[in-house]
Amino acid sequence: MRRTLVAILIALIPVVAVDILLPQSGRYFAWYGVPGFFALFGLIGCVTIVFISKWLGHYWLQRKDDYYDNNGVDE
What average pLDDT does the segment 10-17 reach? Predict the structure, then answer.
């Protein structure tokens, strides 16, 4: 987990560097001027989607191991 996080943060460094070095025009909102905002926003969005998907899969999709064994009959 830690290695993955470090690899993701290292991969974001060039994105932020390009964002700082390239001239930007037409800034309509304040966050357009923050270097690396959209890289961080995308990272947070992806991590949020992964955690929500894992939560949904655990509490909504998974069933007990004997789900199909009892055929709906309570013993």
Answer: 85
Average pLDDT over residues 51-74: 80
Residue 38 lies inside a defined structural domain of this protein: yes
Q: How confident is the model at residue 74 (pLDDT cuts 50, 70, 90)?
A: low
Q: Cα separation of 63 and 58, whole Å?
A: 9
C-alpha angle 69/70/75, rounded to 5°?
145
Q: Are the C-beta atoms of residues 38 and 16 closer than 8 Å to each other?
A: no
Alpha helices in 22-74 (DSSP H): 37-56
Number of domains in the chain: 1
User: Could you tell me the pLDDT band of residue 49, with boundaries at 50, 70 and 90?
Assistant: very high
Q: Which residue has the tokens 């929500």?
A: 52
Host domain of residue 44: 2-23+33-61
